[in-house]
Amino acid sequence: MSTSEKDMIVKTATVVGLGLIGGSMALALKERKLAGKVYGADTNSFHQQKALELGLVDFIGDLDEVVALSDLIILAVPVNVATLLLPRILDKIDRQVVMDVGSTKHPICVVAADSNKGNRFVATHPMWGTEFSGPTAAVSGAFANKAVVICDKEKSDHDAVDLVEKIYRALNMHILFMESAAHDVHTAYISHISHISSFALANTVLEKEKEDENIFELASAGFESTVRLAKSNIDTWVTIFQQNKENLLDVLNEHIAQLRKFKSCLEKENYEYLGELIGNANKIKRILK
Amino acid sequence: MSTSEKDMIVKTATVVGLGLIGGSMALALKERKLAGKVYGADTNSFHQQKALELGLVDFIGDLDEVVALSDLIILAVPVNVATLLLPRILDKIDRQVVMDVGSTKHPICVVAADSNKGNRFVATHPMWGTEFSGPTAAVSGAFANKAVVICDKEKSDHDAVDLVEKIYRALNMHILFMESAAHDVHTAYISHISHISSFALANTVLEKEKEDENIFELASAGFESTVRLAKSNIDTWVTIFQQNKENLLDVLNEHIAQLRKFKSCLEKENYEYLGELIGNANKIKRILK
């Protein structure tokens, strides 16, 4: 048995949506030889062409065509498109496995539960991304040593979860299991608010500094670090925020309240309390090494 | 003439305050052989010991002693200590040059203007830092290819500015000149608000997630990026915020207003405007490549 056959988990996989995440996933399946063939589907003809040029997939086809040919279908489209496409794909399959890789999990799990083939769906969220988008943003080895969440696994068939676990383990990911609703609460804190904060910081600076472009020569690593996520894709994030609206509003209200504490310290010249606020924030060292 | 003698700009330099910035500056002077000898002063005995152990300085002495021995004195203490120490140091010197490296510039320039030796002072701000602190955080080659601002140079003697420019050019820094008051407005936008945002984000997450430590396994690169500055030193930042209070309050109010726009979009389910806000934030690509 060759290395390639030994590593192979599925004969054919289709990645639907060849952007940052889908493109990186297709590349990972090909590079690690986890799928014999990797097919792609994307409504954007530029993405189709680039994905082929970059060797992310072996073949690009019509959605229904590639789904029919595949053992595993990976949905990597914006989360609002994923919830629309999932019932259509589940209707077309028999014993195949469908998984998604979106940043919100509760809405798609609700959609899956409404389908009589929902048991063939596995809801997942690999905790990796960058501020870039499209197939040209795809990265080799993107998922290694990152966490991935599998949600509501008791609603999926055992063999479907097993297959998805095998894929993620082969990619050296650390698998966590979580209820989809809990996932969406946590990612609001761990990811979505960071994006809102970066977008708002970028707008703050652009609003005030628009007449003085030279000033950006001053921008140092700290600025870049907090603002780089502001480059992130509009469609991806509008739809994530939309699907996780309630949780995100809770976090955003808390974040604005925390910022107001800093504001109040400055207004009242209460530098002792300001030091306490910063000291408390320093506790993040427990988490971020 | 040896390489060492050719590169030497001053025979002896003293760095006052051997933390992240002072330690890195001392190391740079030694490594690039820009000073024959580098002396250090620090009131913290742990810092003294570590700075010697790490070879950041050749000798640690009492402040007045090392100042008297030095051609160039570099103030790298928290900005509130710098404004207190500067008059004392200026009183002790004759033709020597004193420079600072603090993140606020207007308050120290006001202090310098009140001294009859203020012409021997050069106000500078190298645009480099990390979230770590103390002499163990000192980094070799920290300043290369970064910007440095020199403020109110018309108030300093020509030879003093020339000396400081020579040092920064030898460190491969890009020198900008600016009024101290303008510098403090710009750094409020480009640096200080990023720190407030990170501290407040850390507090937001720590507040909500304190009962569920496991969740931090989910934290991905985006979270780390926006929150890493929250590890920054209390004393350094309380005093920067204090000295730049008025500008920072302006920026903080603007930032809270920008966050409220995101909040309002979510509350009103106005996803078209949400997309516009993100699209506007994307314009930061002009600045951050």
Observed structural traits:
homodimer, 289 residues, alpha/beta, Rossmann fold, 6-phosphogluconate dehydrogenase C-terminal fold, 12 helices, 8 strands, globular
Which helices and strands appear, and what pairs or packs with what?
2 copies of one chain form a homodimer.
Chain A: H1 3-7, E1 10-16, H2 20-31, E2 35-41, H3 45-53, E3 59-60, H4 63-69, E4 72-75, H5 79-92, E5 97-100, H6 106-113, E6 121-126, E7 147-151, H7 158-170, E8 174-178, H8 180-209, H9 221-227, H10 234-243, H11 245-268, H12 271-282
Parallel strand pairs in A: 1-2, 1-4, 2-3, 4-5, 5-6, 7-8
Antiparallel strand pairs in A: 6-7
Helix pairs in contact in A: 5-6, 8-11, 11-12
Describe the structure.
2 copies of one chain form a homodimer. With 289 residues, the first copy, chain A, is an alpha/beta fold. Chain A folds into 2 domains: 3-178, Rossmann fold, CATH 3.40.50.720; 183-286, 6-phosphogluconate dehydrogenase C-terminal fold (Orthogonal Bundle). In chain A, 52% of the residues lie in helices and 14% in strands. Chain A has 12 helices and 8 strands. The mean pLDDT of chain A is 93. Chains A and B meet through α8, α9, α10, α11 and α12 of A and α8, α9, α10, α11 and α12 of B.
